């Protein structure tokens, strides 16, 4: 038995960041992780492997479609799927080992195994019971199930199975036009799979600024992805390595069945708190299965929770920020997360990024706002890389000019968004961005031009 200031259950982005910050602040920390490697969903079966496959297949797309235009002629590369998966695994390994190194460097103890909380102040791992002044539930999430759809992770897969398919399927039906569906759908579409996305709502990427979502769907359609919207999937069955997916069109209740080689179920994720013993401990839960918290504290003294296991966007950087904030609180300081400035990024080509309010949200709130928009058509760098299709849209308060939101579809959108995030953290106006010198020629100039468009007008529009 060992005694700790803090024991964190879960070694994902929320848990490992919390652990490192706790250690930096002088606390004795243990992290319980049952997987063979640290890093959680994000590093092992989420953010990192999906981005490796997106990078590899984007490179293939460039070779097949754009190299010749730039005078790079010759045979385009053929796909060695096993090697692509090996590259993805190497990327994972490099990152998970990196976290192990950081644990050693910061003297964080990895308690290997699956943890339970038999009582406040105690965490059991295997046969050993450890003591801790504070316990943090950072156990993350798992794919949500869908009635009538039986996942076998071979023919009918979640994102986890989609990362390790035995072979590239000829056809794939993706259930859900959310982030996972569109990222993994893009990967396979670029590999030559005929991808059909079936979405319950009438638009893709629910919650995204509607103008961006519309432009995004148009671009993905041009890339060969088919969309069936307003369609509720009723079930999916697999037999002999093939599958059937049945959906009902919401407008007339007509039922359609699709035949396909593979089905990706991407209809959301749910908190994973199985086997922790929360019910016996009396931990209050939200209706949708998250651990109920107030400033990360549960109703049980000394027990905290964060990341995908609690309410809020299921994003690695949201979990990380919460990990840092909670560590500060546990060390007697003040920790804070600004939930109004959490960016969201979809790593397709083009990338899509957003922060703050959408136009629809501002309308609903009755807020007077103005829109500054700039198309990448007016951006020299975007044109040079054949990615001039998108735009930057900045929403600012009509009277004060304070930035309320930004939505970008275009090259490096996931990186560009951060200058707006910093501006918003500082309560900046669109004019503050517009008056800041931006290097030429960069994609960032499009952000400045959109800010200029909130005032007297963009230059290159
Ligand atoms: C395919 C995919 C792609 C994604 N891409 C992105 C992206 O690009 N950007 C982004 O921001 N987010 C992305 N996400 C979401 C991101 O992975 C999660 O938001 C993030 O991992 C949540 O971090 P967490 O620390 O809360 O939980 P997790 O990362 O889920 O980690 C929880 C850990 O706890 C462990 N655990 C659970 N119960 C126990 C127990 N009882 N004992 C011991 N260990 C336990 C689990 O094994 C797991 O390792 C993606 C997700 C998926 C599935
Ligand atoms: N780049 C990133 O940041 C990234 C990447 C991947 C995953 N994630 C996170 O992982 C989580 C899960 O992603 P996801 O894509 O599975 O969920 P999601 O919530 O983003 O999208 C699910 C989609 O499925 C649709 N749907 C639900 N039931 C349906 C049905 N019966 N028939 C047809 N459509 C149906 C929903 O309307 C929705 O559009 C998200 O919270 C996301 O934030 C983030």
Automatic annotation (TrEMBL):
Binding site for NAD(+): 176-183, 199, 268
Cofactor(s) listed in the protein's UniProt record: FAD
Positions of FAD binding: 51, 115, 139-141, 308, 314-317
Species assigned in the record: Pseudorhodobacter antarcticus
Matching SUPFAM superfamilies: FAD/NAD(P)-binding domain, FAD/NAD-linked reductases, dimerisation (C-terminal) domain
Disulfide-bonded cysteines: 42-47
EC number in record: 1.8.1.4
GO cellular component: cytoplasm
Note: The active site is a redox-active disulfide bond.
Cofactor binding summary note: Binds 1 FAD per subunit.
Family: Belongs to the class-I pyridine nucleotide-disulfide oxidoreductase family.
MF term (GO), any: flavin adenine dinucleotide binding
Catalytic machinery residues: 440
Catalysis: reaction(s): N(6)-[(R)-dihydrolipoyl]-L-lysyl-[protein] + NAD(+) = N(6)-[(R)-lipoyl]-L-lysyl-[protein] + NADH + H(+)
Residues annotated as domain FAD/NAD(P)-binding: 4-323
Gene Ontology annotations of biological process type: 2-oxoglutarate metabolic process
InterPro entries for the chain: Class-I_Pyr_Nuc-Dis_Oxidored, FAD/NAD-bd_sf, FAD/NAD-binding_dom, FAD/NAD-linked_Rdtase_dimer_sf, Lipoamide_DH, Pyr_nuc-diS_OxRdtase, Pyr_nucl-diS_OxRdtase_dimer, Pyr_OxRdtase_I_AS
Residue ranges annotated for the Pyridine nucleotide-disulphide oxidoreductase dimerisation domain, each copy included: 342-451
Keywords: Disulfide bond, FAD, Flavoprotein, NAD, Nucleotide-binding, Oxidoreductase, Redox-active center
Protein name according to UniProt: Dihydrolipoyl dehydrogenase
PANTHER family the UniProt entry points to: DIHYDROLIPOYL DEHYDROGENASE, MITOCHONDRIAL, DISULFIDE OXIDOREDUCTASE
């Amino acid at each position: 038995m060992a005694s700790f200031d803090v024991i964190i259950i879960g070694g994902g982005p929320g848990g490992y960041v919390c652990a490192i910050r706790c250690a930096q602040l002088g606390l004795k920390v243990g992290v319980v992780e049952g997987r063979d490697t640290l890093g959680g969903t994000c590093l092992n079966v989420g953010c990192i492997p999906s981005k490796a496959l997106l990078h590899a297949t984007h490179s293939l797309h460039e070779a097949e479609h754009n190299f010749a235009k730039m005078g790079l002629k010759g045979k385009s590369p053929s796909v060695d799927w096993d090697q692509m998966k090996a590259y993805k695994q190497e990327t994972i390994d490099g990152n998970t080992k990196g976290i192990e190194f950081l644990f050693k460097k910061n003297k964080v103890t990895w308690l290997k195994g699956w943890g339970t909380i038999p009582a406040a102040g105690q965490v059991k791992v295997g046969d050993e019971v450890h003591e801790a002044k504070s316990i943090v539930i950072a156990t993350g999430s798992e794919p949500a199930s869908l009635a009538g759809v039986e996942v076998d992770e071979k023919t009918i897969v979640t994102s986890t199975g989609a990362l390790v398919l035995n072979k590239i399927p000829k056809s794939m039906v993706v259930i859900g036009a959310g982030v996972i569906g569109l990222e993994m759908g893009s990967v396979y579409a670029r590999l030559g799979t005929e991808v059909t996305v079936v979405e319950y709502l009438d638009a893709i990427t629910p919650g995204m600024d509607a103008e961006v979502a519309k432009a995004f769907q148009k671009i993905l359609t041009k890339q060969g992805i088919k969309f069936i919207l307003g369609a509720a999937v009723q079930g999916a069955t697999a037999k002999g390595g093939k599958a059937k997916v049945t959906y009902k069109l919401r407008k007339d209740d007509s039922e359609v069945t699709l035949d396909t080689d593979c089905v990706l179920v991407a209809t959301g994720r749910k908190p994973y708190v199985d086997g922790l013993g929360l019910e016996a401990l009396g931990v209050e839960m939200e209706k949708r299965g998250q651990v109920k918290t107030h400033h990360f504290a549960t109703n049980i003294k000394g027990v905290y929770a964060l990341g995908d296991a609690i309410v809020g966007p299921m994003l690695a950087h949201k979990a990380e920020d919460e990990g840092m904030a909670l560590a500060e609180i546990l060390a007697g300081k003040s920790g804070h997360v600004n939930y109004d400035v959490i960016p969201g990024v979809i790593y397709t080509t083009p990338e899509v990024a957003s922060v703050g309010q959408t136009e629809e949200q501002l309308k609903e709130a009755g807020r007077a706002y103005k829109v500054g928009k700039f198309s990448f058509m007016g951006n020299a760098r975007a044109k040079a890389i054949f990615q001039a299709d998108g735009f930057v849209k900045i929403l600012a308060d009509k009277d004060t000019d304070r930035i309320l939101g930004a939505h970008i579809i275009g090259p490096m959108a996931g990186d560009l968004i951060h200058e707006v995030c910093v501006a918003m953290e500082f309560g900046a106006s669109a004019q503050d961005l517009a008056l800041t010198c931006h290097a030429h020629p960069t994609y960032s100039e499009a952000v400045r031009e959109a800010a200029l468009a909130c005032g007297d007008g963009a230059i290159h529009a």
